[in-house]
Design brief:
The complex is a heterodimer of chains A (442) and B (251). Chain A is built from 17 helices and 15 strands. Chain A has 442 residues and is of the alpha+beta class. Chain A folds into 2 domains: 205 residues, no CATH class; 193 residues, no CATH class. In chain A, helix 2 packs antiparallel against helix 16. Chain B is α/β, with parallel strands linked by helices and 251 residues long. Chain B has a single domain, classed as 3-Layer(aba) Sandwich (Rossmann fold). The interface between A and B is medium-sized, with 25 and 29 residues.
């Protein structure tokens, strides 16, 4: 033990002989270790963000959406053809599939909302009370839709945060009546929601959802007041569509039933195969995909980090070979004074390991600084280049790097390992030298 | 009388560019404890080869070499290292101190390879440094010392492991005549204290200070005789140590 302490002390002493050289060698490992931790932390941050967004859709949900077929299929001389999910299908699914806990029929239309002279564009959503729960909507004031609203087909609505802010910048919206354009109806505001982060689009099957411009009314009211035929005025054109339901969000009792239920539902909607106007999306599947993606991402990042570590290791080996050549005479002296070959190997190994461990420790410290550095970078971008940050995907924009606890011992272990692996050859070379030859060297 | 080293018909061949060179052709002698031997000879006489064998840095082709009771001629590399660490004290022509270590640390090195290094040893190293007149320079590095001072550190180092004998290879080769006198005086004093010294040199002037002179020629012993005209070093150890201390105070 004392032997080791002494060797370590002597090793450190030798390293301070060339402080610049040692520092540069340490830098190589430092960068390698820091990049391992950084890449893993950022990778983890991105994947967590993505996973969080998918989880907000719910692992126990199945989303059945109507997909609008191309215009030439739906529009003939007599006007638009109906497409998409039917209410009858909704009823049938609810009645026949036993694993379903709840089902929400949803109808969405783009509309203008008006209060006095203020106008806001947004999405009118007809739904049931469970909608808030499934989509993690939180009521700020008032209440969300209730069962009686649906049964009595009440003319009530709940405003999303942005709509409420735009229509009622000064007043309290609760109790006020807003007007929905193209329909001569007023709706009484009964609740206002908290702002909610938009969900990310997942692949091509589920587009991003921005809840901030929504107005929610009972689905039954919507059917009665607005109906299935919706005409949208475009610039110089009318666009009509006949659609009963945009979406049915199903929830199952247990997550393990999700896939089987989804398959069953898909079977029940076989009649849509020809038009291909219905899509079944299972967030759980997306979740699994996201996990796979995350794994691939980690492997990829790890590969890059491994390369930088190897480069650092080669740097160490290079320096140590130079050091061994330079200190041939010292090796000879030590051998003459009784050092065994293994003592010489140990001496040089201790030096390389000391270098790599110092680099590793520095790298770990720098690794812990990652979240702060990313925060700083984000702040800089927001301050000086707001355009750039807007063009980034949401997942990247909101990323919070998470330093993985296991990446610390991993990085440290790797740095020690690199010290040993790349220090071994120079050390063995030093030990193999003939002491007589080594002593003769000037 | 105990024998410090005994060579029995030592032979050493080298193969140089496909040709065998007989560096030693059968050398036998004994060095009893307390002896002070000079090994002399012109270059090519086998002097260095004999030195390497006596220093256990190399193994003989044939013959035996006893250090104490043990025949070192057939030992493994690690065993030879152990012998060097425990039984031999080296003093080289070019001092061979380790540049990044201080005076005390340099003296410690052989103990370190014996696997024992305790606080008491540190004290012993200090005493040795004081004995060779460098008690006030313990924290100096070799580059901060003169040649004579460095050689005295080397001598202190050679004593630290209580060796069977001190093996000195042209110990005064790099020193001026005054410093040479000082170093030889130190050797003489150590020998008076009972230390065995084997010194390889080609200078008659230096060899005259020893008790016995072995002359080599063409790998054989030409002569092995007691030194009848022994010259004692002019400067006594104590005046030398005093001069060293003076030097520090004024420098």
């Amino acid at each position: 033990m004392g032997r080791w302490m002494h060797t370590i002390r002597m090793g450190c002493k030798s390293l301070t002989l060339h402080p610049m050289r040692s520092a540069l060698t340490i830098l190589g490992i430092f960068i390698g270790v820091a990049s391992v931790i950084w890449l893993l932390a950022i990778g983890e941050g991105i994947s967590r963000e993505a996973q969080r967004q998918i989880e907000q859709l719910g692992a126990d949900t199945i989303i059945v959406r109507s997909v609008k077929p191309p215009v030439e299929v739906t529009v003939d001389r007599r006007g638009p053809t109906p497409y998409g999910l039917k209410r009858a299908e909704y009823e049938r699914i609810v009645e026949t599939v036993p694993t379903i806990k709840s089902a929400i029929p949803i109808r969405e239309i783009r509309r203008q909302f008006r209060y006095r002279s203020r106008l806001v564009d947004g999405r009118l959503v007809g739904c049931t009370p469970e909608y808030a729960d499934v989509n993690k909507l939180v009521v700020a004031r008032g209440r969300f839709l209730e069962e009686t609203d649906i049964l009595k087909k009440q003319d009530v609505c709940v405003l999303a945060a942005r709509v409420a802010e735009r229509l009622f910048p000064l007043e309290d919206p609760i109790g006020k009546r807003i007007y929905i354009s193209e329909h001569t109806d007023f709706y009484q505001v009964v609740g206002v929601l908290e702002p909610r982060n938009p969900t990310a689009a997942i692949g091509g099957s589920l587009s991003a959802q921005d809840y901030s411009g929504d107005v929610y009314i009972p689905i039954s009211t919507m059917r009665q007041r607005i109906g299935d035929i919706v005409v949208t005025r475009g610039s110089g054109t009318f666009e009509g569509e006949i659609l009963e339901l945009n979406q049915i969000t199903l929830r199952v009792h247990e997550v393990k039933d999700v896939l089987a239920t989804a398959e069953l539902v898909q079977d029940m909607l076989r009649s849509h195969d020809k038009l291909n106007d219905v899509a079944v999306v299972v967030p759980l599947e997306l979740l699994e995909q996201a996990r796979t993606m995350r794994l691939m991402f980690m492997v990829f990042m790890g590969l890059i980090a491994a390369i930088s570590l190897v480069v650092g290791g080669i740097g160490i080996m290079n320096i140590m070979l130079a050091t061994v050549t330079e200190r041939t005479r010292e090796i000879g002296i030590r051998r003459a004074l009784g050092a065994r070959r293994s003592d010489i190997v140990r001496q040089f190994l201790v030096e390389t390991v000391a270098l790599s461990v110092l680099g590793g420790l520095g790298g770990i410290l720098a690794g812990y600084a990652c979240p702060y550095a990313v925060e700083l970078l984000r702040w800089l971008l927001e301050t000086y280049a707001p355009k750039t940050i807007e063009s980034l995907p949401v997942v990247v924009r909101n990323v919070k790097p998470t330093v993985l606890v296991w990446s610390i011992p991993l990085a440290f272990g790797i740095s020690v390992l690199i010290g040993v692996a790349f220090g071994l050859y120079p050390a063995v070379r030093a030990a193999r030298m003939d002491p007589i030859e080594a002593l003769r060297r000037q | 009388m105990t024998i410090a080293a005994r060579c029995v018909d030592l032979k050493k061949d080298y193969v140089l560019k496909g040709e065998t060179v007989h560096a030693l052709r059968g050398v036998s002698f004994e060095v009893p404890e307390g002896d002070y031997v000079a090994i002399m000879g012109p270059s090519g006489s086998g002097k260095s080869t004999l030195l390497n064998l006596l220093g256990c840095l190399d193994r003989p082709t044939a013959g035996a070499l006893f250090l104490g009771e043990d025949d070192v001629s057939t030992m493994t590399d690690d065993e030879l290292s152990w012998i060097r660490a425990t039984r031999i004290g080296f003093v080289f022509q070019s001092y061979n101190l380790i540049p990044q270590l201080t005076v005390v640390e340099n003296i410690e090195v052989p103990l370190y390879y014996q696997g024992r290094l305790r606080a008491s040893d540190r004290e012993r190293c200090r005493q040795l440094a004081a004995m060779v007149g460098l008690g006030d320079r313990l924290r100096h590095r070799p580059a901060q010392l003169s040649g004579g001072q460095q050689q005295r550190v080397a001598i202190a180092r050679s004593l630290v492991n209580d060796p069977f004998f001190i093996l000195a290879d042209e110990p005064t080769g790099n020193l001026d005549s005054q410093t040479t006198e000082e170093i030889l005086a130190l050797f003489e004093r150590l020998n008076d204290d009972g230390k065995t010294i084997i010194m390889v040199t080609h200078e008659d002037e230096v060899a005259r200070h020893t008790k016995r002179i072995i002359r080599l020629r063409d790998g054989m012993i030409q002569s092995d005789a007691p030194n009848t005209q022994r010259k004692h070093a002019g400067t006594s150890y104590w005046s030398m140590a005093g001069a060293a201390r003076e030097g520090v105070r004024h420098g």
